[in-house]
Design goal:
single chain; mainly beta; Acetoacetate decarboxylase-like; 14-stranded mixed β-sheet; 3 helices
């Protein structure tokens, strides 16, 4: 069955980013993916995403749905037919939406686990916490909006960070079959991100010493995209023999 292109509004896309030892990141990736390096570091993080007006692209906006979602990501590159391509590998996706959890991997690419979210937002601050229903993953992040990107080792300024993450629009997700990766590409003509200052960040994924030995994953920066219309284009599945290594 051909999977439809989806339209939505990114009401909030909070990217909490870590710099990671490249050898550690590589162990978490299925072939043919490899870490995309920035100043010698791999880049990984958590995407805390609230989508509104989600619907097939051919349906009117008022029929769209709203949901809280999360994706753990590692920036990657791979050899495509026309040269090196870039994107992200997503070892797990989670959602508060029962519909997304059912439809992901069936009606659109990307298998989802279920999670409970707690969100508090003001014009200058946002806090997002989640706990997955399987008890495997917890996240609790609080950030403040900032006029510029400060303290990042990965990126010199907001413009450099924006270019990097815009280049990672293709996402490939682990699947329970372990034989392939589901693919989806974010597309928008209204790309815009803002800098954040992280007040606190706890992640059972990045704090897990079995995945990230002490000192191998360091919080680097956070960015947020707000109220941006986007579409999601299904990509051909990518063959992989280790895709289920960290899948839900």
């Amino acid at each position: 069955m051909r999977q439809p292109r989806l339209s939505s509004v990114v009401e909030r896309r909070l990217l909490v980013n870590y710099r990671v030892d490249p050898d550690v990141a590589e162990r978490l990736l299925p072939a043919p993916l490899r870490p995309q390096l920035v100043h010698g570091h791999a880049v990984a993080g958590i995407c805390l995403l609230r989508l509104g007006s989600v619907r097939p692209a051919w349906t009117p906006r008022f029929l769209g749905l709203r949901s809280e979602n999360a994706a753990h990501r590692i920036a990657v590159e791979w050899d495509g037919p026309d040269g090196v391509e870039t994107g992200v590998y997503i070892p797990r996706r989670d959602t508060a939406s029962r519909l997304n959890a059912w439809a992901g991997g069936r009606l659109f690419p990307g298998e989802h686990g279920r999670a409970d979210f707690e969100v508090h937002e003001t014009p200058g601050q946002m806090s997002v916490a989640l706990a997955t229903r399987d008890g495997d993953t917890r996240v609790d992040v609080t950030v403040e909006l900032s006029d510029e990107l400060r303290g990042s080792t990965l990126f010199a300024d907001l413009a450099e960070a924006s270019r990097f993450f815009r280049g990672g629009a293709k996402g490939f997700s682990a699947t329970s079959s372990g034989r392939h990766l589901d693919g989806m590409e974010l597309q928008t003509d209204a790309w815009h991100v803002e800098a954040c200052r992280v007040r606190s960040a706890v992640s059972s994924f990045f704090d897990d010493p079995d995945l990230f030995p002490p000192g191998s994953a360091t919080l680097d920066c956070a960015l947020v995209m707000r109220d941006v219309p986007v579409s999601w284009r299904p990509l051909p599945a990518m063959a992989s023999e280790r895709a289920a290594q960290l899948a839900n």
